[in-house]
Amino acid sequence: MTTVAVVGLSIVLFVLGTIAFIVKRDLLTQFMAVEIMLNAANLAFLGLARGSGRLDAQVIVFFVMTVAAAEAAVGLAIVLHIYRRKKSIKTEDLDRLRG
Amino acid sequence: MTADVIFCVLAVVSVGAAAAMIVSKNQGHNALFLVLCFSALGGIFGLLGAPFAAAVQILVYAGAIMVLFIFVVMMVDPRAGIPPERRRRAKLLGVGMGVVLLFELGVAAWGWLGKTASPVPPAGGPAGTPIAVGRLLFSEYVYPFEITSVLILAALVGAVVLGKKEESEP
């Protein structure tokens, strides 16, 4: 379990999250993809800080999780709002800004 | 070494769950795959000597946030129309961009790690016990912590306002 392995896993998870965000066409799954990317960043923090004896990475991970929780609450409320108005959460149906 | 074996198993589980989330079309299944992925990542956090982060990961992410997600999955209508054949192009584009991103991140991490990191950090540094983390959180990081609580309050109020049923919407 070297640092390289941990950072590599973090990179792979981040890329999978990005692919899911681009490929998927509904807001909920895209939201979940964002959560995966946040977790990959957390993993990179912890993996790089391991063995240094410092605990700042854990504190930063805590902050990232808090912000992610706030973001999930507001974002899911927005998704519900969009669903009430449009009766759909597919991104194809949300094209009012298309020129 | 058992830690390496456990790390490999958890890594495969988390990557597999994330990949299954891409393949699966059911949003409820997606949420459950995400729970699996987050739980495996919590185990990895524990292996990395961060028991506090591991516990928060399981409690907040795999618990609270995913419950929110599953609530919303149950509230919206899952069977919306299958989009037209533009999907295939988007899929190819997404995978292609993912490969490019993987390459870029790999090059960046490889160059950086090769330059700076010592090969293997000596295991057995001071474990990040929750006591030490809490002490750090409430001494050096106390202002960010308080600002975070204001952020949570704002998010709470925002979620309530956004989620409210609107009576007089034109």
Q: Classify the secondary structure makeup of chain B into a structural class.
A: mainly alpha
The CATH topology annotation of the domain at 2-78 and 125-163 in chain B reads as Four Helix Bundle (Hemerythrin (Met), subunit A)
- CATH superfamily of the domain at 2-78 and 125-163 in chain B, called what? NADH-ubiquinone/plastoquinone oxidoreductase chain 6, subunit NuoJ
Number of helices of chain A: 3
Largest sheet of chain A: none
Oligomer: heterodimer
Calculate the mean pLDDT score of chain B and round it: 84
Query: What is the share of helical residues of chain B?
Result: over 70%
Largest interface: A-B, 72 and 84 residues
> How is the CATH topology of chain A named?
Helix Hairpins
The CATH architecture of the domain at 2-78 and 125-163 in chain B: Up-down Bundle
- Beta-strand content bin of chain B: under 5%
> Which ranges of chain B are low-confidence, i.e. pLDDT below 50, for 5 or more consecutive residues?
none
Which range does the strand content of chain A fall in? under 5%
Number of domains of chain A: 1
Q: Radius of gyration of chain B over alpha carbons?
A: 21 Å
- Rough outline of chain B: globular
> What is the element string of chain A, with H for helices and E for strands?
HHH
Topology pattern of chain B, helix = H, strand = E:
HHHHHH
Tell me the span between the first and last alpha carbons of chain A.
50 Å
From the coordinates shown, what is the CATH architecture of chain A? Answer: Orthogonal Bundle
